[in-house]
Design brief:
10 helices; alpha/beta
Amino acid sequence: MQGALNQNVRLSLKVPSTTGRFFHQTRRTLLYRSGRSTPLTISMARIFVAGPASGAGKSTISLALLGGLLESGLYKPEDLAYIKPATQGTQQTLTARYCKSKNIASEHVGPLVFYKGFTRKFLDGKTEDTATILNNIKVAVDNIAQDKKVTIIDGVGHPGVGSIVGASNADVAKACNASVLIVGKEGVGACVDTFNLNAAIFELKAVPVLGLLVNRVSDNKKFLEKMQQVYVYFEKFRPDMKVYGMLKENDAFALNLEGYSAPGEHNTCTITFGAPDRSKLVADPASEEELALCSKFITAFLEAIQVESLKQLVSDAAAKSESA
């Protein structure tokens, strides 16, 4: 197991039980930070949500996963966590507000913010170096994942975003010890081709890819039947990965609520001008209208994806982590 950077030391302990047996080391992996006396228990499943572009629906799917896991009764709020470790914007999102209302541990603005001018400062040596950036992300994810059964990690842009500073989505997923779920687009060829393009970046970094979840498929019977060919492709050519489901287009986010942009739209990642004041990076609870909107979307999500697929997704992610 790789050692953590700087002052973080990752240890695998075999702890004897009262019967004299030993826990499997992956069930008892602990993270010790300098200055901390309490060990952090690593999350059972870490799912990194990636997509082909900004606006693909990564934050939308992150909300749906959290809401689906919660509303289905599979997990309690204290079992779940959400973090967006790298981002371009610092505004509140509906995903963050939902987490706040449901008492789900969340951090919608992580350590790495690509504010305007950040990459130029990095190239000029005026920011933290790559190793420090990735270590900050790793520590933030490890902290929020403490004692959680499922941690959803929200990506930014396409998988290559951040590569200029050595912190692409693939680098971040690897630092977080996460497995990747790729949000796909409709159309058989477009869906498969963009999946393979995006998966290749993660595979190049030896990051486990779980499979595909297709977002916003046209609600047309003939078109949905055609999309079944995506399942055929994965069965034949990607047997080690899965298509976890296809989410049909719905009007759940048709309302233009004040204070945030609907998840999945291009303007949800408005670029921040200047380094953010972290004391102000808070999320307010969602309003009743927002919660009703979330509930409508989560219901549609569970109808399309189904609980068994969610259970399989979490199980696959946990298995990938255990074998890493």
